[in-house]
Amino acid sequence: MKPSTNGVIDGVGDMAACLTPLQVFKCLAEDTRLTVVQLLAQMEELCVCELIWLLEKRAMPISQPKVSRHLAQLRDAGLLTSQRRGQWVHYRLAPDLPAWCHQILTTLCQANAREVSRWVAWLETMPNRPVRCC
Questions:
Q1: Three-class SS state of 28
Q2: Residues 6+ apart with CB under 8 A from 52
Q3: Calpha distance 15→4 (Å, rounded)
């Protein structure tokens, strides 16, 4: 896939509309991908540097190449979109996810609210965290 003129990866939105429950559950069955999706559901958008920093703080740290592979799998499945800004890539949930998929993600975040809140609190302590524009 190639970046479009606005920096968003082309073709990803079309894939979100074709998601099946089996694809979603396969993606979410892996702990790192589940964590990323829950974080993005809570935070709306995160830079890859924020995701890597946060995932490295967990009890089972993960390398940057593995994080990138998980992000690519989620993007290729149609769950995420990405946009390059300078040297960093920013990720968000695909804007056209089906309603049933949003319901699943909402339920997952509610069921894991304490853990997601802890991750968000960790993220607020990140040194040199990218500044968000308005």
A1: helix
A2: 64, 67
A3: 16
Dihedral sign of CA atoms 106, 81, 77, 124 in order:
negative
How many Cα atoms sit within 13 Å of 22 on the Cβ side?
A: 0
Residues written for the chain: 134
What digits encode the pLDDT tens for the residues 110-132? 999 999 899 889 888 888 887 76
Contact 17, 98 (CB under 8 A): yes
- pLDDT > 80? residue 6: no
Strand residues in the chain grouped as ranges (E):
45-47, 80-85, 88-93
* pLDDT tens sequence across 72-99: 999 999 999 999 988 889 999 999 999 9
- SS3 for 8? strand
Sheet holding 45-47, edge to edge: 45-47, 88-93, 80-85
CA distance 77 to 12: 8
Domains of the chain: 12-124 (1.10.10.10)
